[in-house]
Design a protein that fits this description.
By secondary structure, the chain is an alpha+beta fold. The chain has one domain: 3-Layer(aba) Sandwich (Aminopeptidase), CATH 3.40.630.30. It is built from 6 helices and 11 strands. Strands 1, 2, 3, 4, 5, 6, 7, 8, 9, 10 and 11 form an 11-stranded mixed beta sheet that branches.
Length: 255
């Protein structure tokens, strides 16, 4: 098992990498299969892991997905729709643009130090090959770009990649709003699943990320753990929330 220091937008940690793959091409069907098996995008490759390390402690990764046929807009979403009714949304195939980078840097500067150095690095790393079919969601206040959400689409599944926004609009809950709109769009396209990534119980920054999407996450995928003397994570294999008597849905902020 290898390690990789990785900085997502909201938290720094070390991934205890189980496996990396560097495909030169990923078909829509292959992306569906990777996501279902607990693989996720990192730059222009895919990885899988059961643990992250922070402050010399191991924490279990809990892989998440949303079954879109079960998604019904919540009261929170309707309130956000009302609050943001004057904003305009546009959805297009993704092509890297300097306007995204400028907005990303403004968002990054509003966060604590140590986050991803650039959007380009976050999405592409050092790769010269683009293997993902990505789409981008623009959020405008009149003609001003105030939010961007990137997501990958397979044949029957989609994966959230990154969302960022103008911190001047923080009171509009733009990050959460973009998650809702991605889910809504994917359901309209008759996809089966939306994968937002994974949750790490015990790392507060992940609590915040999961809380922002608690309405739309209703299926829990657990890759299981192998048993270890380290603290900071629970041992034993866990079932899906819907089949588990030991785990309450509220513990993972699902509805």
């Amino acid at each position: 098992m290898g390690t990789c220091n990785w900085s997502f937008l909201h938290v720094n940690f070390t991934l205890m990498i189980q496996d990396f793959k560097f495909p030169l091409h990923i078909t829509p069907e292959e992306l569906d299969s990777y996501l279902e098996a607990g693989w996720y995008r990192m730059g222009q490759c895919v990885f899988t892991t059961d643990f992250v390390e922070r402050d010399a402690l191991l924490f279990q990764t809990i892989w998440l997905r949303n079954r879109l046929r079960n998604y019904v807009p919540s009261t929170s979403f309707r309130k956000l729709e009302k609050r943001n009714k004057n904003f305009k949304i546009e959805i297009l195939p993704f092509h890297y643009d300097e306007a995204y980078e400028l907005l990303f840097q403004k968002y990054r500067n509003s966060l604590p130090p140590g986050r991803a150095v650039s959007l380009h690095n976050f999405l592409f790393g050092d790769s010269a090959v683009i293997i993902f079919k990505s789409w981008v969601m623009h959020l405008y206040d009149e003609d001003k770009l105030i939010g961007v959400g990137v997501f990958d689409i397979g044949k029957k599944s989609a994966a959230g990649v990154v969302s960022f926004y103008d911190p001047d609009y923080k009171s509009h809950s733009i990050g959460r709003y973009l998650i809702y709109k991605k889910i809504e769009y994917c359901k309209q396209k008759r996809l089966d699943f939306f994968y937002p990534g994974y949750f790490v119980k015990g790392i507060k920054a992940f609590d915040s990320s999961l809380k922002s999407a608690k309405i739309v996450l209703n299926i829990l995928i657990c890759r299981g753990v192998y048993g270890s003397p380290f603290h900071g994570w629970s041992s034993g294999k866990m079932n899906d929330v819907k089949n588990s008597k030991r785990i309450k849905k509220n513990e993972f902020l699902f509805s």
